Amino acid sequence: MNKFIAIPIQILALYFIGLLGLPIHGNANTISGNTGNYLQKIGVLQPGDTLLLEPGTYANNMKLVNINGKPGQPIVIVGSGQSTIFIGNACCNTVSLTKCSFLVLSHFMLDGKNQFVDAVKAEGTAGNWTHDITIQYTTIVGYGIDQQAVGISTKCPSWNWVIRKNKIIGAGTGLYLGNSDGTMPFVNGIIEYNYIASTVGYNMQIKHQFNGSRDVLPETMIDAHTTIRYNVFTKDSTSSGGGNARPNLLTGGFPTSGWGAKDYYEIYGNFFYNNPVEALYQGTGNIIMYDNIFVNHFDPAGIRAVYFTPQNGVNPQTIHFFHNTLLAANTSGGVRLYNPAPGFVQDCYANAVFAPNPISNFSNEIDNVKDTYNNASSYVLAARNTILDLDLFPKAGQLTGTLTPDTITLKYKDATKDFNGDSYAWTYRGAYARCCRNHGWKLQLDTMPDRNVLISSLNDHQETGLAFSTWPNPSNGELFIQSPVQADYLLTDFTGREILKGNLRKGINEVRINCELSGTIFLIIQSETKSFSKKIIFSK
Fold first, then answer.
1. pLDDT: is 25 or 405 the higher one?
2. Is the peptide bond before 23 cis (omega within 30 degrees of 0)?
3. Do residue 486 and residue 467 come from a single domain?
4. Are residues 313 and 453 in the same domain?
5. Cβ–Cβ < 8 Å for 3, 499
6. What are the two backbone dihedrals, phi and then psi, of residue 409, each rounded to the nearest 5 degrees?
7. Is the entire prediction scored with pTM above 0.85?
8. Which helix (H) or strand (E) holds 288?
9. Is residue 56 part of a domain?
10. pLDDT tens, 429-474?
């Protein structure tokens, strides 16, 4: 079994996550900064530079204006985890971005101290933009004074963002991407491995993008999509109610014609847990949703658990909802499609839904298992209302049947895997592709790797006791890997986006890289006990 997916899919390989987003060329400068001089040090950063911020309490905000790396040479600002603390200040947002690009921010604690500010904000000043921004391994607390106080926010046209492995706890809103009037698009983002809990309003929202401003985006963003995967979205008694009630996740629609009309959301592998006042998920536009687990033990009055419905003038368009597991006490229903746009297809395939009125209004329903919330324990190992005991893995002989048609799933590269990352022929219904004993993910918070892991990855390669070797370097698409043992490999770009992964046998292995990427890529090899990484210059 591939070791990159055999481990819990939500915490995926801490070793190589430490490599992501770091400078990848040999002439970079590594600079140290502290509470007294960090603003001065930020002002002199050049593409490829890394600023290492020492532990301490940083009382001033991090104002980033015209901080621009280059493709393959990002500017990286790295803290020391929870010992590098930026304190909220009523004057301004704690981390402020204006006209920044190819920038990585990693390993910070942002403590709002109950001030009415945002933790990280791409500012909405006239003419502003941000792109190719990575925010990762940052803990955000103390921003819950009001529903309008946000953990990570974009109020200007923003594209190619990666928001990864952050913990946002108790914010007014966890992530608020785009502007309330639909004029500031957030396009082609990756939101992954985040833990967002106990928010007042949304755990996360991407606003509709219907009102202009698409022409500010590069032409490559005409038909783009945003990926939301492997996150935990959970709400509790801190949720605002009444007219301020908000879903865990809401995704708004795209332009219905012209530039952006073919944009879509791909939402998979997420865990949605509890909302006492609203839906777990609400969305419109083009939505691909699979391998998610939805659980709501509350029963908010008149609210469905998952709701595809018009919003801000955009109706549900192409909807593919497949291989999800839903356990919800919502009396008003489990999954509902309402008033879809004509001329589009909406599918609901191979889900396991345990709720009153499990699925409604889909004309294309195939191979779904539907039953009540109270009967779920007949199908899964533990349909319990305490999170530590919950296990929605199928019992022997349950949630399985004939092979579901794969005409939809084959369109999406990760749709042949289940919630645990296991590959399987889809005879199973719901988010899991096998039965009986759940070897995979359980709700837990992993620890951040020490900053020394990141610093050591600035070297050209690391080797820990195994005689791996690779050639040639640079590579034109053909790579040979000599491995002394059976192992798994993963190739990523500098943002951590997967290029290729597979298995290595003992001996010499040939790997062919078929993509248009050029520049530096990361090779990570993982055996049963050892790890190895190396930077490869790749040029087609």
1. 405
2. no
3. yes
4. yes
5. no
6. -65, -30
7. no
8. strand 287-290
9. no
10. 999 999 998 887 544 334 333 334 333 333 333 333 346 778 777 7
- Cα separation of 233 and 241, whole Å? 18
Is residue 226's pLDDT more than 50? yes
Q: How far apart are CA 365 and CA 248, in angstroms?
A: 25
d(CA 64, CA 46): 13
CB 251 within 8 A of CB 203: no
Q: Enumerate the H helices of 372-492 as residue ranges.
A: 451-456
Return the sign of the alpha-carbon dihedral for residues 265, 158, 513, 165: negative
In this structure, is residue 335 part of a structural domain? yes
Residues 351 and 290 in one domain: yes
| Digit-coded pLDDT (tens) for 154-190 | 999 999 999 998 999 999 999 999 999 888 999 999 9
Residue 261 within a domain: yes
- The answer on 502 and 453 residing in a single domain is no
Report pLDDT for 162: 96
Average pLDDT over residues 86-115: 96
Helices and strands (H and E) in the chain: how many: 4, 46
Confidence of residue 506 (pLDDT cuts 50, 70, 90): confident
Residue 459: the pLDDT is 33
DSSP 93-141: -SEEEESEEEEEEEEEEEE-TT-SS-SEEE---TT--EEEEEEEEEEEE
Number of domains in the chain: 3
451 plus 488 within the same structural domain: no
Domain, as residue range, for 531: 460-538
- Tell me if 50 sits within 8 A of 30, measured CB to CB: yes
Question: Residue 169 carries which side chain, given as an amino acid letter?
Answer: I
- Residue 105, both tokens: 């921010």
At 424 the pLDDT is 74
Q: Are 342 and 453 in a shared domain?
A: yes
Q: In sequence order, what are the residues at sequence separation of 6 or more whose Cβ sits closer than 8 angstroms to the Cβ of residue 491?
A: 498, 499, 500, 501, 511, 513, 521, 522, 523, 524, 536
What the block records as the tokens of 218 is: 């590069």
Kindly report whether the peptide bond that precedes residue 255 is cis, defined as omega within 30 degrees of 0. Answer: no
Q: What is the percent of the chain with per-residue pLDDT over 70, rounded to a whole number?
A: 87
Q: Are residues 129 and 177 in the same domain?
A: yes
- What span, in angstroms and rounded, lies between the C-alpha atoms of 32 and 34? 7
Integer Cα distance of 307 and 126 in angstroms: 35
Last residue of a domain, one of 267, 296, 316: 267
Q: Are 68 and 103 in contact (CB under 8 A)?
A: yes
Q: What is the DSSP string of 152-172?
A: EEE-S-EES-EEES-EEES-S
